[in-house]
Amino acid sequence: MIDIFLKYARITLLLGTLPMGTLGAGLSISPNVVTNNFFGQVNLTISGVAGQTVLVEKFYDMNASGSVDAGDLLMQSFRVSDGLIPTLGGITNLNAPGDADGAVNGTIQVQLNYPGLDSIYSRIEGPWLFRISSPSSAFTPVTEQFRVWQRVLPVSISGSVSNGVDWLTNALVVAFDSNFTPVGGSRVQSNGRYLIHVPPGDYTVWPVLNGYVCDQSGGFGSVRPGQSVTNANILMTAGSTLLSGKIKDSATGAGLAGVGVFAYQTGSSFATAFTDADGNYTLTVTASLWEVACVAEQLPLLGYVPAMARRSTNLTGNLSGFDIPVTRATTLIYGTISDDQVPARNLGGVFVSAQDVAGLYAASGMSYRTNGNYSIGVVAGNWWIAPDRDSLLTLGYLGAGTNWVTGRYQAARIDVLGRKITAHLRGTLSDGSIFPPAFATVQATDSTGQWSATATTDFSGQFDLGVFAGTWNLSLDDDTAYGWYANGATVAYTVANGQTLAGLTYRMRYSNADAYGTILDGNGAPVGGVTVQGFGTNQGTGYNFRATSDKTGSYYANAAAGLWTLHVKCFGGDSLTLRGFECAPATPAVITLGPYFVTPITVSPLAAPRFSNSALLPDGTFTTLVSGPTNRTFQVLGSSNLTDWLTTFATNTPQGSFGFPSTNTSASPLRFFRALVQ
Q: What is the pTM of this model?
């Protein structure tokens, strides 16, 4: 990303309003009973609270008493105010609860999207409680029950949870599929067993119980059609070392209540806890090296931006004060997700992610059923925004990402297009054995590199890739290639709308070499977060691999001995362009058995854009010519103070230059312009 700025005229003024105060309170919930596959809104109506701020808390009712007791888990907590709708940049933040009617009328209408972004805990079967209270003690707390039932499916995964001696009946359990997407959860029963209804597939079940650590393999099993798994048993070990701290606002130090906290040992154990009403947590672990992070999916509800990094500590004894600061969102990315049909249809239930180019934050949002609108709270920066391919695929669409630069206290509208699946590539993944690989993921990328489709093989190695008309290049998904230590063949297929290419055989081979390398800029500094693609030939068949450089510029990939050509990804997510570099030429490499160190790849920065022929016309319009590299996307941003920047114009120009007219500026004393190329 390269930018320059240009001084000119303008000034901006921001105005806002604040609320007021009253007595008496009531709470009703509709619906108050759902199944864990429900997709819609749970509406909380809080009455008798004119002008007040109300604390809303959600508990798991461990003893099913219908009231909040000492053993109940606080798993969500937020505040809402009569008449106040949460906004960023003047646009409603759909992830943060508020008063939906926007009126100071004594009634707060809270619309909670279910399952919302926090699909880990919200899908757990059982009795839940919502409690409202007044931070100023203006009314007596009110509690109402909310029930989640499991949807009943033909098959399930079940097992026991114990410490090797006793059943751990206070544990909750969550089942994750092969993509580590949560699909359901339950409470361990009095006999020490749990049962979660799931579709056929590979599953890992993780327990949620403070005071214990558990191996990251948890309970696991392959659920087949008509065949449930009944022995996905989970063994937990009592912790012996206390690790405590606070999840807090990075600016004010205020604690965040009801937030899940995970501690990890790399490739080994994990432990869980929740913050209390003051934001404090205590994990019971073992003396070892631990990484700690809060559950990212819960932060958008509270108006915060999840960080990508975890805090780490090498415990030798009890440790307190291990606080985790989180950053409040100051900017909004929002828009509508719709399809490419005529007339266009808005798409609900699609997750959208936003990752900043610096690799510090990874935020998320979700489009809602009523209108396909989504929003993501972020901070000022350069963001890669992309729809979740799995949730789009469920609706029969493919999606592509884009990047955008945002300023503080602003809202940027980024509409997302889903392209309808109109053709199929069907076949078998083969590794040359008599048992085709099951639950491996195959990927197809179109000729532009912008659109991709994925499919997971079934028990017989069959896959079905939904695509649209065009030429598609097949490869193994990165996680599959890494996990299976394999390379996929390089194969391209051309398909028309309405056509199904069936009976395909897509080959993979197991690797016998390791490719290591680095990506550096002209000063020898590391370039992280970019994808390296390798293409090679073995016994007449082309194979490929993909890897992504880390913050040290280093990458690693499974490979096979032979001649390879390495390409650093130029456009799209994890690309050189996104990080402000020119496309790099291909690098040949003769990879040998065992570890092989590829010659470092050096990349050059993008040429900076230029302003020229600037003029102020008699009618107050300011014009200028922006020039830069060809076939790039340009953004022009304006500011009155060199701090807060607002995108005023954007274009993708093959010629590398375009004229930019500003709106009438005669009434404004000062304005700066800035051009970015990507």
A: 0.83
